[in-house]
Every structure is written in C-alpha cells, then in structure tokens.
Amino acid sequence: MRIDKNVEVETIDFDFKGNGVAKYEGKAIFLNGGVIGDTVLVKLTNEKKGYYKGHILKTVRKSKLRIKSKCKHSYKCGGCDFLEYEYNR
Description:
Strand content: over 45%
Mean pLDDT: 83
Order of helices and strands: EEEEEEH
Number of helices: 1
Low-confidence stretches: none
Distance between the termini: 39 Å
Strand order of the largest sheet: 1-5-6-4-3-2
Shape: elongated
Largest sheet: 6 strands, mixed
Radius of gyration: 13 Å
C-alpha cells in the first residue's frame, strides 16, 4: 500500500543488497542507503505486510562508522554500496 509519512529512525543493519535497514512500529524499513548507526529522516513510501520501504530525506546524525568515500561520484551514482562504511572496526 502506498503511504506518505516521514519518520526519524536509526539505521541498524544492511540487507543483502547493501541497503540500510531500520525499524519502525516493529517492522523493518528498507532504505535507499544509510550506514549502520546513522540517524536519518525517512519518507516511508510503501507498506507491505511485514515491512516498509523508505527514502532517506536527510541524515540527522552521522554514524561513527561513516567515512568519506574515495569516489566523488558514489553518492549520486549509487553503484558501490559500502564506500562510506568503515569495515575494520
């Protein structure tokens, strides 16, 4: 079902495609980005039986695991999922 609601959530995980995962009202939200630990303002766009799909509107607080990407196009391109994530912590 199509919805239009903005919520502030914390990214808690990644899915198998490299998208961020958060929780809202006990359901997972699959995001178009995000790093574990980011607090983000999300526009919920679709509600399914057990989850939501959302689009990050802005990052409220950046994660301690977020690093600067080595590629200046990574944010616009979206081709490389983990360029802004510090693996070796």
